[in-house]
Design goal:
Shape: globular
Strand order of the largest sheet: 6-5-4-3-2-1-7
CATH topology of the largest domain: Rossmann fold
Helix content: 25-40%
Radius of gyration: 23 Å
Number of strands: 16
Order of helices and strands: EHEEEEEEHHHEHHEEHEEEHEHEEHHH
Number of helices: 12
Number of domains: 3
Length: about 400
Amino acid sequence: MGGSVLKTIAVFFGGLTCEHDVSIVSGLQAVNALNPQDYRVVPVYIARDGEWYVGEKLRNIKFYPSFNPWEVDRVLPMAAEGKMALVEHPSRQRLFRKLRTFKTIDVALPVMHGMNGEDGTLQGLFELMDVPYTCSGVLGSAVGMDKIVMKQYFRACGFPVLPDTWLDRAHWEAGREAELDRIEAALPYPMYVKPANLGSSIGIGRADDRAGLTNAIDIAASYDRRVLVEKGVAQIQEVNCSVLGWGLEAKASVLEMPIRWDDAELLNFDSKYLSGEGGKGMDSMSRRIPAPIEDALTDAIRALSLEVFKSLDSKGVVRIDYIIDQSDGSYYVGEINTIPGSLSNTLWAATDMTFAELLDAMIEYAIAAHAEKRRNVFTYDSSILSKVSAGAKMGKK
């Protein structure tokens, strides 16, 4: 990209979520991949208590296991005419000195996973501050985060999804046997039980009988108030597809097939993030690229991925996970990850796109989407305030 004036890119990671540590790994990968000749890169760490920090020590992964907030700068975000200013937190203010502005951000690059970051909450803040950001918007992020709403939405769009039902913690605690009866009447075994708003395979369990179902719901309900229960596939095969773009411009990646590290039917958290060398996150996970499936099925899944991406008005890079039933060749949308682990770099590397180039594209899409948003009319001149101030009575809406 280059240019005489470097844009300041803030990479956000951490957060109040069970996926906090995974987010740190992915976030620092992005920080290290952004070209310092093209950008001023600012790591922004959101701690487990929701406080925001900046500082050079945040670039070092070894700083986080014994995180000391007094070795970095605690900040607050403030709107700054299409940019976001990171201002010194009042608790750090010294006597008779104005609060410092540490950085003014041109583009936000969130690498947040799970609740309180990937779910539309942080995106809403960026919208209110009118700052460009690289991921899907409030609607797509919120729908993509909640597995129950997401599946209902996909079903309404005509996308293939597995049969499912759901429950909330209050009904579960009020009448476990009744809920078990209802679920067993709706779905056959095996079933998969998932917290509605969580990723990285945390809290997900397989149930082959009533006792297993009870245990799986107990675990899932400890992570989230709402729980999805989904029909299992006996001869299961999993493939993933990434989509990159925004608006009229979107392209699907090659497909990958994750390889399980054990005999479990579920690719769990440890398999995804801890099996590789050096804790390198999703980049360390063993996979087959391209996925060894028929060309016709590959083409169908890639085409469906573009439809899913466009229907949610997605932006930047997403990863869409699919389940294939090998017994009959049918395939189903499992879920969309609007901020995928390590931003699905491995899938795009298969097309000779470097991680830096992928991030460049995401930043360009963020800026283009922001410019398009500014074409909207946000003001409307009316006589309401002048009439009310002159004593006129307010009418009904």
